[in-house]
């Protein structure tokens, strides 16, 4: 289905499919809709994945699949991928019909050629659109506008109109209200700005990141997410050019849902002095020179020798163990120099006891949690609810009536290949509801949601499989619209 701004497109497509079904004598049993999802891959298209799973598992109680056109089946960058998924359906005795195409999907040479051309055109459309969108984003960066992401400690996002006039400061999870609006970064509260400048002063005086973090924590300081300072968060403040007012884009790219790539500085898009700086440029350059000098003075052999010494001292290796050491380069240096941390581990004779991807996924999920909480807050406020978010625990108070905790459950696979999830409820916070986000295989996007009322949950830990019986699956939802509706307000006259 098309994206939300195309207000009537999904409805129009469904109406067209309905007319096609009536004309050809089909009865529509159910609708599988992935509204506003990218068609580049199956990731995030939970409804289509569920449909294909039913087909492959022999659970399909239908004889045909009606799709608006070839592009709605997918804009796969490999045209053979779309053909493969259709082949899976055809092998199960289920025909895919493209309702708006000018050919019958009857397996003839003509229809096969047209389908192939259409699949190639659909993929090419996404590639061409990606180039245009990237060019537009680069132009906005050069004009000094922020392109996504949280502001960070000591900074805030300010929404401006098309003429640059300030409108309002955006809180965590909030987005601009009009397409013509833009976002810039501005200095945050004076106390945070003073802390950022103090971090630079302490670092230039010779105090390492770990000691700075300990000092801030000892004084009761917290990051912009309400969490204790770590060596990594201090390091990020010292190395991010946004603190000197530079707008930097394309440091990391993930175009067309392909593999995430860390780009060399030559490919970065930089607008110097786009924002009001928090620290002076000469101070920032001195700090960056110190950071870069720590890694430049080591060759590969020296890096591996340091890693071997750390292994002997700590007994195990991980990115967190490496990043918390002040006397050696960060884990990102090892990734860049050796291609991956796993390869660096092998070169010093270390094999992790568990799959290294588990640690990477956990770190990614921890970083994802504030974004998920922000999207829930946005959804509740969109229907007219009021939300009070505890900065220390992320516990949400909704309308002053009930509290909600958001937990993310990592996907795991058993030795037999079955999916499993574990949930640990925040018993200490005692929320009225726990919204559990089950991640998909790969732990990249949410698969579904469980809205669990505390009054019905007697155990602090839950183990979930793909199917769990009505006692648990009765609380399962494909999206959070039902949960948002709990916060919806109605006028007295409407209620009457």
Automatic annotation (TrEMBL):
Q: Where is the Recombinase domain?
A: 174-297
- State the signal peptide span: none
GO MF annotation list = DNA binding; DNA strand exchange activity
**Which SMART domains does this UniProt record tie to the protein?**
Resolvase
Pfam families linked to this entry: Recombinase (PF07508), Resolvase (PF00239)
Superkingdom in the source lineage = Bacteria
Q: Which CDD domains match?
A: Ser_Recombinase (cd00338)
Q: Which PROSITE patterns match?
A: RECOMBINASE_DNA_BIND
Q: What is this protein called?
A: Recombinase family protein
